Amino acid sequence: MIVDSAYYVEGTPAKQKPVGLAEARRRAREERGFVWVTLSDPTPEEMQELRVSFNLPALAVEDAQARHERPKLDQHGEHVFLLVRTVRYDEARRAVDFGEIDLFLGAHHAILIGRQSSVALSSARARLDGRPDLAELGPIVAAWAVLDEVIDGYEPVLDRLSDDVEETEQAVFQRGLDQGERIYVQYRQAGRLARALHPLQEIVEAASEGRIVPKLPDHLRPLVRDVGDHVRRLYDEVVLLGEALDRLLNANLAGVTLRQNQVLQKLSAWAAIAAVPTIITGVYGMNFRHMPELRWPIGYPLVLLVMIAVISVLWRNFRRLGWI
User: What is the fold of 2-255?
Assistant: First the structure.
């Protein structure tokens, strides 16, 4: 479904906007400026119509229809295909959600396809409208608008995930709670962020070094290099976060093992204490006839005193050792 479209002439969107693929294609064929078309979660039929209307590469369209693809930048003749992963933090579930933006660049068109990325799609268009000096450079500037918007979206997500990790650390070290499952989920989310960011470093480097056609204009390259610096910084932060979670997982496991040992110590101590009266009463419970102590007047209180004395000695020793 088309959610946005515009026709840029000399860096400014024309007042009369294309409303359908046929009209957008006709505008692109005029070879004056370029057409911007945004689709959100298109159906296979819409993708086929899009491919035919703009003569898009079949392999690129196939990649756009596949899910969970890694970020990539491919050259298909005169067409450029860019795939990036978007991120969003769900406060209700305290989880990171991933979306996708596919960008098809041609001589006179920039086609964006978003999957669970409606905010990023509209914001990328807003960036382009805010820089008419860049928009007049042609469709290639859409690659910068998309990359810049998507990378900026990683910052708050990473900050929020870092806050979650901080809370988990407090639960592990200050409250002594078992956070194994929570740490595993956070570690997995950090890994997915790393896998989404790592290929973007190569993508931005390829674009800034002019390894795609059309090449970036000279005054656009500093902006793309700035995006690359942002990507590398975020990737380094994600790697450090993953390492911190790995250490936290080991610390949590050590804490769980320590608490289990403490429980076993307490059980062992009380079992040893309980064994004393159990053994003594077991012996005297056998009711043998030839037991001299049975005829002693002080036999019963003496046995009780012996049990109390042994139990007291064991309790004091275990208490000194910190077992109880």
Answer: Beta Polymerase; domain 2 (3.30.460)
* Structure tokens given for 14: 């024309």
DSSP string, 49-105: HHHHHHT--HHHHHHHHSSSPPPEEEEETTEEEEEEEEEEEETTTTEEEEEEEEEEE
pTM of the model: 0.79
CA distance 34 to 28: 6
Give 293's pLDDT tier (boundaries 50, 70, 90). low
The long-range contacts involving 211-217, CB below 8 angstroms and separated by at least 24 positions, are 212/73, 212/75, 212/80, 213/75, 213/78, 213/80, 214/107, 214/138, 214/140, 216/140, 216/144, 217/137, 217/140
CB atoms within 10 A of CB 195: 14
Amino acid at 141: V
Tell me the H-state helices in the chain: 21-29, 44-54, 58-65, 118-129, 132-135, 141-173, 180-208, 221-284, 299-321
- Report residue 164's pLDDT band, with 50, 70 and 90 as the boundaries: very high
Sequence ranges of the domains in the chain = 2-255, 258-321
Q: Does the domain at residues 258-321 carry the CATH identifier 1.10.1740?
A: no
* Percentage above 90 pLDDT, the chain: 32
